[in-house]
Predict the structure of Flavin reductase family protein.
Amino acid sequence: MEIDPNEIPSMYRTLSGAVVPRPIAWVSTTGEDGVDNLAPYSFFNVVSSAPPTLVFAPGDRPGGHTDTARNAIDTGEFVVNVVDRAMAEAMNETSATLPRGESEFDHAGVEAAPSTRVRPPRVATSPVAFECELTDFVEVGTGNVVFGEVVYVHVDDAVTTDGKVDATKLDAVGRLAGNYYCTTRDRFRMIRPD
């Protein structure tokens, strides 16, 4: 199969099916109205370690930005919560489209915990939560790129070894395509050459 992006209506299925697995940013924000929002984004990654910077890419909805994007722009703050296998169903439930002003935390029965440096709460059961301050917001076609500098991190000691996050203990969930997800259970090791 050969694909010319100019000859098809959308590249979404090709990109989301081939760029796998994608980590999931379970992003919590608080609107100017005080309502807490929680939504998953699989177009997500780290882009710098100094300053520590994360990026996620919410697409637009009919009528404009998602609640997450609008809240991040309006308040300049958000939290990226890492999703592990035990939280996958709740994370999926927060992807439902809710009426404006209704909290996904409440809808999905997700326990919130206070953050340390930013106003939005974090997911209490997340093994790793990155509190972020918005550094840039870039519109790209029908999507947006949200950049946030990490200003505080919460790490569950259960996923660490010798004071470092241990990938063998963090059963993170990744996004594949359609209704498929994966975990980080199947691992192999290779030594990087000099």
In short: The chain is about 15% helix and 35% strand. Residues 22-179 form a domain with the Pnp Oxidase; Chain A fold (CATH 2.30.110.10). The first strand starts at residue 22 and ends at 23.
